[in-house]
Write a structure and sequence with these properties.
The chain is built from seven helices and six strands. It is of the alpha+beta class. The radius of gyration is 22 Å and the shape is globular.
Length: 205
């Protein structure tokens, strides 16, 4: 009887291994999907002095306001990057004019690059640490604390006065990401799950 069951057992084992391999090949982790689909916006202050931090926020406000008509119409990350590239000179001008308005003599450096971000909370969403494409503005020596938001999908252009992402923005983010990744942004990190067999976590949903 045992000999008859052995072929079935071997077939079952092979099937499970193949399933795991296929899952690993085609299923991205939440951080990997976020890195592929999100474009972040990063403003780094000259220093952590109160004056430099104040100026950082003023530059952020001016650039976000100036770029809203362009970025809010983008329908993909690739399009957002192209729009940002086409408007780097414009962004530079807006940032420089803001510094001049407050009589601040600091350089402005702007680039689009893939850079590391630590874990960050934006409203009621927590984005995992990892490498993300980002439009970065560095003021002066760039040694101060930074301000960031999500440029695509366009979450930079919403009112965050109450520390909660508006429902309309949540819908935009939800339509961009897979259900699993979207849910991971606001889930309880202490939630039980299958650590070594993550493809079975759907059983707990």
């Amino acid at each position: 009887m045992k000999h008859k069951l052995l072929p079935i057992f071997y077939i079952l084992c092979i099937t499970i291994v193949c399933f795991i391999c296929i899952y690993d090949k085609y299923n991205l982790t939440p951080q990997e999907e976020l890195s592929l689909k999100l474009l972040r916006f990063h403003v780094i202050a000259n220093s952590n002095s109160s004056d430099d931090q104040y100026i950082k926020l003023k530059v952020k406000e001016a650039v976000v306001s100036a770029m809203q008509p362009y970025m809010s119409r983008c329908t993909s990350k690739a399009e957002s990057i192209e729009v940002a590239k086409e408007n780097i000179s414009f962004i530079q001008e807006v940032a420089t004019n803001t510094l001049n308005r407050y009589h601040v003599n600091q350089s402005v450096s702007i680039c689009i690059e893939n850079t590391y971000f630590p874990i960050k909370t934006y409203g009621d969403f927590t984005f995992p640490s990892g490498y993300y494409d980002s439009v970065r503005i560095v003021l002066g020596e760039g040694k101060g604390e930074n301000w960031w938001c999500v440029l695509y999908p366009p979450l930079c252009f919403v009112d965050m006065s109450y520390g909660v992402v508006p429902e309309s923005s949540k819908e935009t983010l939800s339509s961009t990401l897979s259900k699993h990744t979207y849910n991971s942004l606001s889930e309880d990190k202490t939630k039980f799950g299958f650590r070594f067999f993550p493809f079975l976590n759907w059983l707990l949903e």
